[in-house]
Amino acid sequence: MSNPITTWIKKSMETYKDREEWMVERISEGSINSQKMSDERHGPFKVHDHYRAEMRTRTNFRHRSAISSYAGSEAGNAGSYSALNYYQEGFAKRRDEILTDIAKNG
């Protein structure tokens, strides 16, 4: 007879192979997300001599790393176009909910 607690611990422990696979997946996702940020920053949409434009007249809109709860999702790359679309869709849904509520309740 073996101890049930020891058996439970052994069954729930992750193996070295599982940890390695998880790390490879995490690193590849980070690499993909960082390349997305780089592609959006240095994409072909820039006009010629864009770096000569006066930056002080523009808003402070720079790419930033995502918070961990949004990593890997559309909202993951803070300051990117995909995050902007994600939040705009959420705001549009909330606006529609509010307008529906106003229409029902007056």
Automatic annotation (TrEMBL):
It comes from the Eukaryota. This is Uncharacterized protein. It comes from Discostella pseudostelligera.
